[in-house]
Amino acid sequence: MANSPKPLKKKFMFKTSLKKGVTVPSLIFIVGVSLIAVFFPEVTEGLLNKIQNFIFVNLNWIYIWTVTIFVIFLIYLMFSKYGKIRLGRNDSKPEHSFFSWISMLFAAGMGIGLMYFGVAEPMQHYASDVFGLHGYVNQEKNAQLYSFFHWGIHAWAIYAIIGLSLSYFTYRYRLPLSLRSGFYPLLKDKIYGKWGDAIDVFALCSTFFGITTTLGFGVVQINSGLNTLHIVPDTSFLYQVLIVAVLVLLSIASAVTGVDKGIKILSRINITLVIVLLLFVLLVGPTVYLIGSFTEGLGNYITNFFSLTFGTHVYEPESLPWFYDWTILYWAWWISWSPYVGLFIAKISKGRTIREFIAAVLIIPSIFNFFWMTVFGNSAIWFDRNKADGMLSALSSDPDALMFRFLEYLPLSTVASFTVVLIIVIFFVTSADSGIFVMNNIATKNAKASPKWQVFLWGILLALVSLFLLNAGGLDALQSMTLITALPFSIIMLMFMVSLVKALTIDGDYYERSFSETAVPWSGGFWKERLKRIVSYKNRTSVDHYIETTVKTAFTELQQEFATNGIETKLNTYKDPTKVEIEIQYDIVNNFVYGVKNESKLLSDYLLNEENHPDIEENKTYFPKAYFGDSREGYDIHYFTKNELISDVLKHYDRFLTIVSEERNEMFISSNANKRKN
């Protein structure tokens, strides 16, 4: 009897989209630094604090000039001719509604920080001796002014530089959504090698540590709020473990669903809750005082904008320690967060114009932050001076509890405190899930699909590192290291700006380039036939007939003539709508394409009722429209004869050859090749 065949054993296939060149060095560095901070927290913190203090005292001017350049550059771009350039193809449309877009970038960019510092920062400025030299009026105005300064346009300009650069190169050049892509004009194909991997390793580690420290401090505030509400008996490490476990699981679940579902839904819910809480405090607090102080504070900010921007406090030595601990620390903190926030903003900004992107990212979140700081910070100061007898300012050094102590002076304080905890929880989740999404994106070099276990990997790693550092007291050391890395990254951001300028210059020249001077103008022959075409309005059938006869005949003759000159061409035909195109394929640069398709347009009611056009029977007319392979806007060619159409194709081919022959256009015209490398 023959032996029966043995069943084949299924091999377990370990699927991953992680790239070793980025993931392995990043994990080694993350684990190594975390272990040092856990086992030697005091020594590590002491050493890093010395380095941080040296940078802040001696090199603070680098931060001042860098952030100033960012602000000036973005304002220039917004009002320049480049503002109309779209982040994507010229016909791209935004993927998210305006409200969803603003909600997501706001949640990723500020999130927990606003809840943590909304009351604490104005109160700490108010209680500081630096602002207490000329009475309480000066204290209040300066507390508000510097809160606006630290959370306003300058902070968002830092995020906008990264977000704009990455979204431009990702969607306009079709490069990977990665920091390496921002260097393409400078490094070209080297971004796909070790240089690019090094840049992504830096971005991944910076993102991980920035989120870890922020989430660590966020957990402490959530624990404090739950303790205030008597939900947990104390703020011990055990409850912090439980909080982290629950929130990270929620973050992982949200990240698995992607940007279009979990992150977007949570961001919209949270921004709605934030607005409700904001209006509640405004209405039950000192409303008239708050509206007046916001109005005056906004004017004060605008009036002092440039002096704040360039201020180094060099003539006020007594305020220098405050300057290092607040303004310079903030600039370093926003810069250290910019890889993560910038990548996420880029991910959700496809289809926006540069002008729309800059105006929205700089102005809308800044105005909201100003109003938030006024409503919460100025309310707390007002209560401290009029009802609390200084008890709130006495708590200025305890920001974890200050928000909840402030709410006790309002009606429905328990409900308000529950709402604050809920908002912080959702901000925690949206920060973590978008961070997980970004880290996986960097580690996979923008892979289109990744197994779900990778999302769990980053979420669990975030939770473990945060908890170990919380327990060992190493969060401050990690925060210091993150702030130190902001110095070299500020130089990298300036290089991003240089790359963007170079690319935008070429982009503008590419789309504004007209035909060469040798192009033959439109002929005056056949003018009687043209006149008939000008005053006639076509139906779909007549335009299809024009394409099937005149256009196809012209393209066929061109194809034959190109062949005699050793150039291989293709004729591509399509139905519904009818269109024909002639294509010349290239290995390196974009293919040359000239096509004609049947398009329709609506006619105005005025024209329909005009007696001089008696043949118009419906409010729609059809016409043959030329289009090109590089997304430039096409035009109506129904006036062209066969030979004139051939001449028009040759004009565009002449323009194409002129552009591709110039070395400086290499990075723009090779975007299809770039796409194949991803």
Taking the sheet with the most strands, its summary is: 5 strands, antiparallel
Strand arrangement in the largest pleated sheet:
1-2-3-4-5
Taken as a percent bin, the fraction of beta residues is under 5%
What is the end-to-end distance? 56 Å
Question: What's the overall geometry?
Answer: elongated
Residue runs with pLDDT of under 50 for 5 or more positions: 1-5, 8-13, 516-521, 673-678
Radius of gyration, in Å, reads 30 Å
Quaternary structure annotation? single chain
Report helical residue fraction: 55-70%
Q: Overall pLDDT, averaged?
A: 81
What is the CATH topology of the largest domain?
Amino acid/polyamine transporter I
Structural class: mainly alpha
Integer tally of domains:
2
Number of helices: 27
The CATH architecture term of the largest domain is Up-down Bundle
CATH class placement of the largest domain: Mainly Alpha
Q: Kindly state the number of beta strands.
A: 5
What structural keywords apply?
678 residues; mainly alpha; Amino acid/polyamine transporter I; elongated; transmembrane; transmembrane transporter activity; BCCT_CS; membrane
Compile the SSE list and pairings:
Blueprint: H1 20-39, H2 41-58, H3 60-79, H4 98-109, H5 112-117, H6 120-127, H7 136-151, H8 153-171, H9 184-187, H10 194-228, H11 237-257, H12 259-284, H13 287-303, H14 305-310, H15 320-347, H16 354-386, H17 391-394, H18 399-407, H19 413-443, H20 452-472, H21 475-512, H22 527-535, H23 540-564, E1 570-574, E2 579-584, E3 592-602, H24 605-608, E4 620-628, E5 635-636, H25 642-660, H26 666-669, H27 671-677
Antiparallel strand pairs: 1-2, 2-3, 3-4, 4-5
Helix pairs in contact: 1-2, 1-10, 1-20, 2-21, 3-8, 3-15, 3-16, 3-21, 4-12, 4-15, 4-19, 6-7, 6-16, 7-13, 7-16, 8-15, 8-16, 8-21, 10-11, 10-15, 10-18, 10-19, 10-20, 10-21, 11-12, 11-19, 11-20, 12-19, 13-16, 15-19, 15-21, 19-20, 23-25
